Amino acid sequence: MSDRKDMELIAELVPPASRVLDLGCGNGELLAHLRDARQCTGYGIEIADANVLACVQRGVNVIQLNLEEGLAMFGDHSFDVVLQLDTMQHLRHTERMLRETARVGRVGIVSFPNFAHWPNRLHVLAGRMPVTKVLPYQWYDTPNIRVGTYADFEVLARKDGLRILNAFGIERGEIVRRWPNLRASVAVFKFDRG
Amino acid sequence: MGSVGHVTPLAMRFEQPLALRSGAQLADYTLVYETYGKLDADGGNAVLVCHALNASHHVAGTYAGQPKSEGWWDNLVGPGKPLDTDRFFVIGVNNLGSCFGSTGPTHTNPATGHAWGADFPVVTVEDWVDAQARLIDALGIRRLAAVLGGSLGGMQALDWALRYPDRLRCCIAVATAPNLSAQNIAFNEVARRAIVTDPDFHGGHFYRHGTLPRRGLRVARMIGHITYLSDDAMEAKFGRLLQGAELGYTTQDIEFQIEGYLRHQGDKFSEYFDANTYLLITRALDYFDPAREHGGDLTRAFAAARARFQLISFTTDWRFSPARSREIVKALLDNRLDVSYAEIEAPHGHDAFLLDDARYHAVLRACFDNLAGTAP
Q: A22: part of which helix (H) or strand (E)?
């Protein structure tokens, strides 16, 4: 997560002393925070060399893997919480990864840029793809190969039989519960298999 | 970053018999070792470095009067280097059965008064680790900060975590595997047959005949060397470059530079390495399989471990591929052990673990920095 406040809001969704798997853990900042502030244990999965090194430097457990190859290494229900923060939009096999998240974790937490945030809608109304703080890339060089909305995720979760335990938007470090699909740049969902 | 400078090998004799995995025992034996850096008062900064097939206790530094005698992991071990001898006390130990000083087939069998030769008992990774543990006892070290090794050395590091779970804080296993594949064993067997069928081998008692099975050792080294390099590295270094200016249309002389290179490696090796040691060490590789006594279940094998683990593999290593390291990672995850795993994109194949690759060494440096910064 890029924003510290967003990270803390999401960390509060993780029960203390949980065993956590963080898919696309970046530099390990969240795992270190969960370890230090919430007595959690666990592992991060990361593909980028620089992030793997940053995790080792922080003393955070990190496994260098390509998430597109799936989570075959991890058993069913082997984690209390599986996090997929700011990662889903980079994956080609989004739905498979969501199912894997629900298989490996008792609880899954995802966050991703909400494409339906109102400034994005204005961009599209004006005939252009949005370029914003949360979606800062041009259409031709974006690593975000899956752009979805808060409302889209609700549909996908229903399709895959996931039960949403908690859901909100985040905008400028604040939780948005009223009209999050319109008012929040980041979507957050906590779910289990129902 | 500097060198540890001139070093001198030390020897320690053990009178207490060592029971070997095979059922045989060594009545007494000597281990040759080197140390670098200074042991803390509480003994908590000791790191054991385990060697692979053709290396020794000489991990770092040089021998006085021999400027080209750098230790085999000198790029990693020294003042300011990733394994920093200003902070850690580093131990390199030569394994039993070797030909570099510790008790092995070139030494005298007390029962016969002749060189052990082929009668030297078969030794395993477990036997080596037991012998190393006695050395660590004798040095007054209760708990190692880390055991580090690559390839066959990595197997020893893993075995430390299984046999002596409370005696190491961290296990660092590089370019290694939980056991050898059929293909790995096959390469070893070709090498062994080359040695054993050399007429100068004399059933392993060539010392008495004043000969060396050089031809067998050469072929063994050539085949081994091919497996240490990646296809790409070999292509980049040699391609189809010719030895001479034109093709000679000869079946027996060297035409391509790769042939000359392999022959040179084979020639060098056959002059300094003992044939019986080669057989023993390749067998130790074949036998290593901690899952075997747990019904083939590696997860159960690692249930005993307590250390934290750092595993590293190299993308072009086809001898001990990343998939083999991932098997180990999975077993550690299943046991909820602390583990980090880095898969280094390096072109050099298995040999990469000995080379100075910035990303690889940065991970090791971070790992040792953490060990230095935490209480034993």
A: strand A19-23
- A57 contacts B370? CB cut-off 8 A: yes
Q: Name the residue with tokens 């923060």.
A: A85
Among the listed residues B102, B151, B313, B325, the single catalytic one is B151
Query: From B343, which residue of chain A is nearest by alpha-carbon distance?
Result: A64
Q: What angle do CA A4, A50, B236 make, to 5 degrees?
A: 165
Q: What radius of gyration do chain B's Cα atoms show?
A: 21
- Is A120:A135 a contact under the CB 8 Å cutoff? yes
pLDDT per residue as tens, chain B (376 positions): 789 999 999 999 999 999 999 999 999 999 999 999 999 999 999 999 999 999 999 999 999 999 899 999 999 999 999 999 999 999 999 999 999 999 999 999 999 999 999 999 999 999 999 999 999 999 999 999 999 999 999 999 999 999 999 999 999 999 999 999 999 999 999 999 999 999 999 999 999 999 999 999 999 999 999 999 999 999 999 999 999 999 999 999 999 999 999 999 999 999 999 999 999 999 999 999 999 999 999 999 999 999 999 999 999 999 999 999 999 999 999 999 999 999 999 999 999 999 999 999 999 999 999 999 864 4
Q: What is the DSSP letter of A172?
A: T
CA–CA separation, B310 vs B240, rounded Å? 39
Q: How far is CA B255 from CA B7, B215, B249, in A?
A: 42, 20, 8
Report how far residue B24's alpha carbon sits from residue B234's, in angstroms, rounded to the nearest whole number. 42
Q: What is the SS3 assignment for B238?
A: coil
Q: Is A61 on the interface with B (CB under 8 A)?
A: yes
From the list B47, B156, B143, B148, the residue with the least C-alpha distance to B98 is B156
Give yes or no: B151 in active site: yes
Are the beta carbons of A61 and B339 separated by less than 8 Å?
A: yes
Please choose, from the candidates B156, B150, B109, the residue with its C-alpha nearest in 3D space to the C-alpha of residue B131: B156
Residue of B nearest to A19 (CA): B336
**Alpha carbon distance A149, A108 (integer Å):** 18
ipTM metric: 0.93
The DSSP-derived string for B36-96 is: ES---TTSTTEEEEE--TT--S--SSBBTTBTT---TTTTTEETTSSEETTT-EEEEEPPT
From CA B284, how far away is CA A16, in angstroms rounded? 46
**Residue B179 has what DSSP assignment?**
S
State how far the Cα of B197 lies from the Cα of B219, in Å rounded to an integer: 11
- In angstroms, the Cα distances linking A4 to A7, A87, A150, B83, B96 are 5, 16, 21, 34, 54
Global model pTM greater than 0.90: yes
Question: Contact B341/A63, CB-based, under 8 Å?
Answer: yes
Closest CA to A169 of A153, A151, A187: A187
